[in-house]
Design a protein that fits this description.
The chain is mainly α and 100 residues long. The chain has one domain. Helix content is 57%, strand content 0%. The chain contains 5 helices and no strands. It is flat. The chain starts with a helix and ends with a helix.
Length: 100
């Protein structure tokens, strides 16, 4: 942060922050671009369509569950572990696929 403020003043930093609100850049933007492609592939992979996937269905969610323990959840079955990860990251898509 110190190096940034040596090169950029507060006014310019504020302008960059405003620009990012208008036209976002960085990893969140890259995640969204990938999610658009994943939603399109999903929507066109089934005939007839089973679900209408949205890009938000494929965007990782990193918020923490306040009721969750701080330790990892480790399951003995590798497939169950993989399913748990998918469900936690993409819960909305899984709920739609299950008809919820």
């Amino acid at each position: 942060m110190r190096q940034l403020l040596e090169c950029v003043d507060s006014h310019e930093l504020t302008e960059w922050m405003a620009y990012d609100l208008i036209d976002p850049f960085g990893e969140a933007r890259a995640d969204y671009r990938s999610a658009i492609v994943a939603a399109q592939v999903t929507n066109h992979s089934f005939s007839p369509p089973r679900t209408s996937a949205l890009p938000s269905d494929f965007c990782p969610r990193f918020e923490r569950d306040p009721d969750a323990s701080d330790g990892p959840i480790l399951l003995d079955d590798p497939q169950a572990q993989s399913d748990l990860i998918d469900e936690r990251l993409y819960a909305r898509f899984f709920d739609a696929a299950k008809g919820k």
